[in-house]
Amino acid sequence: MPLLKIRLTGSEADAATVMSVVHGVDGVERVEEVADLMPHMDDEDSSSAGLVDDQGAGGVHAIEIEVPGPHTGDEVRELIIRSAESLGMAVEFVDEF
């Protein structure tokens, strides 16, 4: 079963909305937010050290979606793009988190 991996940038509520929309697609087996295992450290020598967090209440949400096949996967991708755009979220489709 194909597995889609996406990153959504935005609020918890908006991420939950996108996940709910995806749950409504026929054939979608699983929609789950997973822990991001990538450390996000602000090193002292980093060019962003000490800068104000400009994401506000938002954050990055790593989400896995199991779909039955490529056709449903394409349908889900389009739905996610439209939903994220309408909510003002950024979306990224990735191979690995």
Furnish the topology, listing elements before pairings.
Layout: E1 3-10, H1 12-23, E2 30-34, E3 59-66, H2 70-87, E4 90-94
Antiparallel strand pairs: 1-3, 1-4, 2-3
Describe the structure.
- This protein has 97 residues and is an alpha+beta fold.
- It has one domain (3-35, 58-94): Alpha-Beta Plaits (2-Layer Sandwich), CATH 3.30.70.100.
- It has helices at residues 12-23, 70-87; strands spanning 3-10, 30-34, 59-66, 90-94.
- A four-stranded antiparallel beta sheet has the order 2-3-1-4, with helices on one face.
- Helix 1 runs antiparallel to helix 2 (70-87).
- The longest helix has 18 residues, at 70-87.
- It is globular and about 40 Å long.
Features:
97 residues; alpha+beta; Alpha-Beta Plaits; 2 helices; 4 strands; 27% strand
Spans with pLDDT under 50 lasting ≥5 residues?
none
CATH topology group? Alpha-Beta Plaits
How would a crystallographer describe the biggest sheet? 4 strands, antiparallel
**Radius of gyration based on Cα positions:** 15 Å
Mean residue pLDDT:
86
- The CATH level-2 architecture is identified as 2-Layer Sandwich
Output the CATH class name: Alpha Beta
Structural class: alpha+beta
Number of discrete domains: 1
Topology order in helix (H) and strand (E) letters: EHEEHE
Q: How are strands sequenced across the largest beta sheet?
A: 2-3-1-4
**Cα end-to-end separation:** 18 Å
Please give the number of β-strands.
4
Overall body shape? globular
Helix fraction, binned, reads 25-40%
